[in-house]
Amino acid sequence: MSLKELIMKKIDIAIIGSGIGGSLTAALNKNKDIVVFEKDHNLGGCASTFKRFGAYFNSGATTFVGYENGHIIKNIFDKVGLKPDILQSEIAIRNIQGNKKVDRVQNFEEFLTQLNNVYYHKNNRVFWTKIKQIDEKFWKLKHIYFAKYSLKAFFKSSIFILELLKEFKTDLLISADKFINDTLPNISAEYKAFIDSQLLITLQTTSQNATLLSMSLGLAYPFHKVFYVNGGMGKLIEDLLKDVKVNKNEQVISIQKNDKQYILKTTKDEYLCNKVVLNSTIFDSSKLFEDEKIKSYFQGFKFGDQSAFVVYLKLNIKKELIHHYQIVLNKQIPNCISNSFFVSLSDINDEKMSKDGLSLTISTHSKAIFWEGLTKKEYEEKKEETKEFIIKEFLKYFDTVKEENITRSFAATSKTFYSFINRTNCGGKPINIKSAFSLPSCNTPFKGLYNVGDTVFAGQGWPGVAIGVNVLNKELNKI
Ligand SMILES: Cc1cc2nc3c(=O)[nH]c(=O)nc-3n(C[C@H](O)[C@H](O)[C@H](O)COP(=O)(O)OP(=O)(O)OC[C@H]3O[C@@H](n4cnc5c(N)ncnc54)[C@H](O)[C@@H]3O)c2cc1C
Known about the structure:
By secondary structure, this protein is α/β, with parallel strands linked by helices. The chain is 34% helix and 22% strand. Helix 5 (124-140) packs across helix 9 (212-219), helix 7 packs across helix 9 (212-219) and helix 8 (189-203) packs across helix 9. Pfam families: NAD_binding_8. This is Phytoene dehydrogenase-related protein.
């Protein structure tokens, strides 16, 4: 060890990023010598809550799902000893398309009755029963595991694949589109849009590129309990990290590998670490390394340009509205890749988020490339155009809200996400039959270097990221 290394601060496990992945991993290992480095002032990345103009807003994620017995999220929270301050949204999501409305409620029969009222198909029961059954089976799997680069990892991943084959058999090979066309022949364009708009949110893709398995997990999301988080989504992250050493406002700039350890250079200091967990996206991690082998490993993952456009509103009203709406339009949103947007409102009784009125996060899908190569003026104009379009459409559907009730409005693009949380891509890579085997895993070919987050197995959102956290935790603790 060099003299320089001798005087450096030592850490056993350094976690780069306080997103869902970094925070759940840190909480599960809170008794170890562990430090979480977070570039931003707020914790949680896409699942953070921030303050602007004196009001609080959820930056991206707003729905919390999986806090129910037997589910991975509750299991992790129980292990960590955290009881979240949450409120079940009885109507998980109200889906509105023109004059058609379907409430995604947990109760299957109630949901089916509503669905049949607006998107009747004689096989609706068969279709949705299958979706629900596949989802239920998935969350009961015992050996969910996906890692690479060692014989042991290969063996354990094979056990998982065998379990998948045993449970799902040929269903595993069926594409979402085929299942829809076979089960719901002559499905109307509107009904298909109802399905696809939900998949875009949960899977970042439509039925065209999904498998029956991934479509089932995406569509069955509201058959689980969906929760509103009091105090904002970021409160969950803060609670998860309350017993963990967190270095906020400290960005990791470079990571250098020596024989057995990693030297971390941050905006404030240098550290010598035994293990490094990267919660940066798989596409952004290469920038941190000079070592050619590590760099080229990360560069091997093709950039998935799935990004978000988000509008934040503060309303000077306090009305009891449901927490989440999805509005499906009959036209495309400008500068976006979707014809729908997702509206989340703060709960009227949430003292922090609803102080002086409701706080809204409205999100839709865009691409990072749409916001690149523009002059400042062009960028601002494009952003304003998209924001105003969404606000205008939003007002059409919420007749209890008038334009004059909006006291603050501003928006975020992939550029905004980059400047705050270092990522332009905002969403996991959709898993389909082709991409399943090229997915990044939580371990890397380099000893002591790990990945976690929504661009790594198993994907995005609290449940998807948590699956990866479980695998990573086994690797870190060599179970
Ligand atoms: C608009 C939108 C709405 C969504 N809605 C939902 C929802 O309702 N429910 C749901 O479950 N999921 C939702 N998701 C998905 C979910 O938010 C993400 O999948 C999840 O939050 C990603 O977690 P992650 O672990 O990958 O970390 P990230 O959120 O990517 O966070 C990574 C963190 O690492 C930090 N970081 C990166 N590089 C460095 C560095 N070099 N040094 C220090 N810090 C660094 C970043 O600042 C960031 O805080 C939504 C996502 C978006 C964008």
